[in-house]
Design goal:
The structure is a single chain. The protein is 47% helix and 22% strand. With 433 residues, the chain is α/β, with parallel strands linked by helices. The N and C termini lie far apart (190 Å). It folds into three domains: 123 residues, Nucleic acid-binding proteins (OB fold (Dihydrolipoamide Acetyltransferase, E2P)); 153 residues, Hypothetical protein af1403, domain 2 (Rossmann fold); 36 residues, no CATH class.
């Protein structure tokens, strides 16, 4: 058996003879690109097939595009899809299986169908849009109202990026001399970290949303394949639900991402975003000028009308005043006659009634006075009857010592001075016992 053993080279040649059959040559295969690298003019990659639900790799194969074909295939693919060969892109490639004695089995790519790649990108985007619509958030940002003049701009972009610089220059050097407040919230704008850093920047802006009128997400030129990072569902949901209007200006004129479908405003470039904001300002200024002109014209028209009316009134005043005076004089004379006639009819009965009332009041007053005098006299007589003087006149007297009335003998001491009041006078006496 040992004499029948094959060398590895012989085995590889046998495998090669088995592989190099018509069923493995110029076969169209769908796969996902991985580990794409260009070296020495050749493009090397791995082709993967993944489980659509679990994402695990089901099959893998090495592949390459030789340098004599790669420039043509790559340019045709880019012209049709706007993307370079890059990891994560799904492709349909025409391959032929080969067996190299040293490097083993590999697939040589001879053609690419760009329509498949475009269809896959559009399919994934369509699925995300349908999901956003089903969740009721697709139109949320697009339905927000703009402020009259968005001047406070929160920008999400890469620090030092040319696109951000162009955006600022365009805003600050506008010919209308509009004033804008711009602040950068930095984020990575390409690669796998782009979605999470952009979301972090948006969350930071949302915490101070009262300070801003809108958000601008911008990225300048570069490899179109880098825009795959923006075909991200989580990023799309954040933009769709953001509480401020969002302007998206990513890539080149022909580039489109899912963010263009959910943002309030989509423009092609950072400069275009600045131009749109400036146009909003110019439009607001024109509206203010138009309102001012309309107000001025309205005031002028009102003043002209008032002047005309005043002139007309000034012409009427002399004749109108005379007519009014004559009319009022006639009214006064008529009222005087009416008053004279009515007065005599109304006053005479009232005078008679007043005279009768006067007589009644005089008679009643006299009777009341007489009754009061009789009552007063009766009281006076009664007071006089019970007064001390009446008692003295009846033969009584009052004795006092030092002004105090004596009511008991015990109050009188030896040598006391007595004052005795009689009806017709007073006497003094001194005790000697």
């Amino acid at each position: 058996m040992a004499n029948e053993a094959l060398t590895l080279l012989e085995l590889n040649k046998r495998i090669s003879s088995l592989i190099m059959v018509s069923s493995t040559q110029n076969v169209w295969v769908t796969a996902e690109l991985s580990d794409v690298v260009v070296r020495g003019g050749h493009c090397y990659m791995e082709l993967l097939q993944k489980d659509p639900e679990k994402g695990t790799t089901l099959a893998k194969a090495r592949a390459m595009i030789w340098a004599n074909l790669y420039p043509r295939i790559e340019s045709q693919f880019y012209a049709a899809t706007g993307q370079r060969f890059a990891t994560g892109i799904k492709v349909m490639v025409q391959v032929s299986a080969t067996m190299h004695p040293v490097y083993g089995i590999s697939l040589v790519v001879s053609a690419v169908n760009p329509e498949y790649t475009m269809g896959d990108l559009l399919r994934r985007r369509r699925e995300m849009l349908e999901r956003l619509k089903h969740e009721g958030i697709l139109e949320m940002n697009r339905s927000l109202e703009w402020t009259t003049l968005p001047q406070r701009i929160a920008v999400v972009s890469a620090p030092g990026a040319a696109g951000y610089g162009d955006f600022r220059d365009q805003l600050y050097k506008n010919q209308a001399r509009l004033k804008f407040k711009v602040e950068l919230f930095p984020a990575v704008m390409q690669g796998e970290r782009a979605p999470e850093t952009i979301i972090a920047a948006l969350e930071q802006i949302a915490m101070q949303s009262d300070a801003w009128d809108c958000v601008v997400i911008i990225r300048g030129g570069g490899a179109t394949s880098d825009l795959v990072a923006f075909e991200n569902y989580d990023l799309a949901t954040h933009v769709a639900q953001f509480p401020l209007p969002v302007i998206v200006g990513i890539g080149h004129d022909r580039d489109v991402t899912i963010l263009d479908y959910v943002a309030k405003k989509s423009v092609k470039t950072p400069t275009a975003a600045a131009e749109w904001l400036i146009a909003c300002g110019v439009k607001a200024l024109e509206r203010l000028r138009r309102i001012g002109a309309e107000m001025l014209q309205t005031v002028a028209d009102r003043l002209a009308g008032c002047k005309e009316q005043l002139s007309y009134i000034e012409g009427l005043i002399p004749s109108v005043a005379g007519a009014v005076i004559q009319s009022n004089k006639a009214k006064v004379q008529s009222q005087l006659l009416v008053l004279a006639s009515v007065g005599s009819r109304r006053i005479s009965p009232e005078l008679a009634r007043l005279n009768h009332v006067k007589d009644v009041m005089v008679s009643a007053t006299k009777m009341a006075i007489e009754r009061k005098n009789i009552r007063l006299n009766t009281i006076a007589e009664l007071l006089d009857a019970i007064s001390p003087h009446a008692t003295l006149r009846r033969g009584y007297s009052i004795t006092r010592i030092n002004g105090q009335v004596v009511t008991s003998v015990s109050q009188i001491s030896h040598g006391a001075v007595l004052e005795t009041t009689l009806a017709d006078g007073m006497i003094k006496s001194t005790t000697n016992n």
